[in-house]
C-alpha cells in the first residue's frame, strides 16, 4: 500500500507544479471549472489533503500492527473519517475533470476516481467502524480481494501517469 501512496504523492506534486489558481483570495469560494485545465487544477488542489489523510491512515495501521490500544482505535477511527472525507472530495474533482477531459483522458480520470471512491474510501470506512485491529485487517483483506477494487489498485499507477501526460500536453501553455 505504501508504494501506491508514494506514487499518488508523486503524482500530486507533478499536477500541483502545473496547477494555477483562478483567485488569490483564499476565502473566495471556488468557481466551477469550465475547461479541462481548470478542472485539473482543482483536482491538484484537492489531492494533497487526500494523500495526507491516506498516509495518516497507513501510519496509524502500521503503529497498530505492534499491538492496538484503545487510543490507537480512536486514532484509527479519526484517520478513517478524514480519509473518507478527503478521498470523497478528491474523487469529486476527478469526476469534474473527467467531464471536461479529452475522451482518451476521461477514462483514466474515471479509473482514478474509482480508485479513490471504491478503494481508498472503502479503507477509510473500514477504519471508521473497526472494532479491533484484527477486524480491520479481515475487512481490508475482503476489500483487497474484491475484483473491481483489485483492478483499480492495479490500474491506478498507469492511469495516473496517462492523466499526468495528458495534463501536461493539454495545459502546459495555459
What would your notes on this structure say?
By secondary structure, this protein is mostly helical. Helix content is 82%, strand content 0%. The chain has six helices and no strands. The protein has helices at 2-18, 36-64, 70-100, 103-129, 133-145, 147-171. It is elongated, with a radius of gyration of 17 Å. The protein starts with a helix and ends with a helix.
Write out key terms for the chains shown.
174 residues; mainly alpha; 6 helices; 82% helix; 0% strand; elongated; disordered N terminus
Short précis:
This protein is mainly α and 174 residues long. It has helices spanning 2-18, 36-64, 70-100, 103-129, 133-145, 147-171.
Task: Report the end-to-end length measured between terminal Cα atoms.
Answer: 34 Å
- Helix fraction, binned, reads over 70%
Number of strands: 0
The major pleated sheet works out as: none
| Helix/strand structural class | mainly alpha
Shape: elongated
Weakly predicted, low-confidence segments: 2-29
Radius of gyration: 17 Å
Q: How large a portion of the residues is in β-strands, by DSSP E?
A: under 5%
Order of helices and strands: HHHHHH
Count of alpha and pi helical runs: 6
Q: What does the average pLDDT come to?
A: 84
Amino acid at each position: 500500500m505504501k508504494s501506491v501512496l508514494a506514487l499518488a504523492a508523486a503524482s500530486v506534486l507533478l499536477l500541483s507544479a502545473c496547477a494555477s489558481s483562478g483567485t488569490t483570495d483564499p476565502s473566495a469560494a471556488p468557481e466551477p471549472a469550465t475547461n479541462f485545465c481548470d478542472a485539473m487544477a482543482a483536482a491538484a488542489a484537492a489531492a494533497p489533503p487526500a494523500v495526507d489523510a491516506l498516509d495518516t491512515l497507513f501510519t496509524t495501521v502500521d503503529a497498530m500492527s505492534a499491538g492496538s490500544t484503545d487510543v490507537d482505535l480512536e486514532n484509527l477511527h479519526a484517520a478513517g473519517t478524514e480519509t473518507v472525507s478527503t478521498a470523497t472530495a478528491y474523487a469529486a474533482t476527478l469526476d469534474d475533470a473527467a467531464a471536461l477531459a479529452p475522451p482518451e483522458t476521461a477514462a483514466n480520470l474515471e479509473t482514478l476516481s474509482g480508485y479513490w471512491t471504491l478503494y481508498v474510501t472503502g479503507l477509510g470506512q473500514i477504519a471508521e467502524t473497526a472494532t479491533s485491529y484484527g477486524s480491520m485487517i479481515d475487512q481490508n483483506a475482503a476489500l483487497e480481494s474484491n475484483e473491481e477494487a483489485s483492478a483499480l489498485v492495479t490500474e491506478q499507477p498507469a492511469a495516473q501517469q496517462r492523466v499526468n501526460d495528458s495534463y501536461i500536453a493539454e495545459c502546459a501553455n495555459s
